[in-house]
Amino acid sequence: MITMLTAEQIDAILTSCAATTYGAPQTLDSGTFQALATSGLNLSKATPVICAPGQIICREGESGEAMYLIRSGHAAIVKGSFDAPIVLACRGAGEFIGEMALLENLPRSASVVALDEVYLYHVTREDFQRMLSHSTKLDIGMLRKLSSRLREADDLITTTTHARRSLSSQVNVLEAENQQLMELQRLREQTTDLVVHDLRNPLHSIMGAIGMLQMILPPNLLQENRDLFKLVNDNSERMQRLVDSLLDISRMESGETELTLEPVNLAQLIQAAVSRVSSTLQTRSIASSVFMPAHLPPVEVDLDMIDRVIINLLDNAIKFTPSGGQISVSADPRADHVAVSINDNGCGIPPEERPHIFERFSRGSSEGLRRGFGLGLTFCKLAVEAHGGQIWVEDGDGGVGCKCIFTLPLIRVA
Hints:
By secondary structure, this protein is an alpha+beta fold. The chain folds into three domains: about 130 residues, Jelly Rolls; about 90 residues; about 150 residues, Histidine kinase-like ATPase, C-terminal domain (Heat Shock Protein 90), CATH 3.30.565.10. The strands form four sheets. It has a five-stranded mixed beta sheet. Strands 1-8-3-6 form a four-stranded antiparallel beta sheet. Strands 2-7-4-5 form a four-stranded antiparallel beta sheet. A hairpin with a 6-residue loop joins strand 4 and strand 5. Helix 7 packs across helix 11 and helix 10 packs antiparallel against helix 11. The radius of gyration is 41 Å and the shape is elongated. About 5% of the residues have low confidence.
């Protein structure tokens, strides 16, 4: 029964054969045919077979009762499915096909498909055995060893091809997922820009209105509503920092932020930051202390950015410190950097959550850590790393509360 491949299957095989180089066709007076003539095989009496393009000459898994000698045309040695073929080799005029099954007495290890019109000589098992017995140059044991090695090589090619296809499929999946992630990142950045824009306008209006009221209201009314105005101003500034953090985080993540570096007295910067949160500390009945060395070397930083880092860390410490608690700030100069520590005696952060608290929108599971969106700490991490420093969290002094530490490089002296 003649079995033909579909046009799509033939195209798939031809595509795999595109890089194959064929040897020069052998004529009737060439070495292969002359060797067969001296072996006792009369090719003129051999059964001729003509196969059309796409015809299956031998099928993988079938018993091998004959082999073929190609008189003209080309055939492909194919393993596996014809829809996703693994082409082991291509054969042309003067070459054998199907001989491995005869040599090893095993089922055919691959299929053979005609690539164009192929003229074959059909050699039966009996003819093959007769040919071997008449030839003084052929050793059946050596041929079987060679055939076994060829079969092992074919199996290796098959395994390698399957592995390559599997890897290629995985790469395609990863590329598709990467494209999705890039699209999500683009949408996130676009959303962030829209949120920042929509928040800034009303926030500036509120802050402007509060400022106008403080300018036009009589002194007695301002004095009577001093605490109310301070509450509004403090929360407006906090909202401003949140909006700025949203924008700065997006810029730093995309590498668009340029630092404005200048020499800064870090001790003065820390003292000023603690003074700005003093009213909140008093309202929460939280004590504060600052420990600075007598001669703290200057650092070269973006003043506004590091000031916001310190304020964010102080706000975070205040938020999680109970009434009557304690917050301390210290600086410790090292060989090439200074380490700034902000310590509280609040609820602390479990060790398993510490690596994640600087991630955007991260919220811990501990008591008091469920509020907020984590943008302040994300900003701190990106800002410190932009300066070449590091930031991390440890247990608080005495194993109570939390200590947040960040480092900044010292100015190098030439």
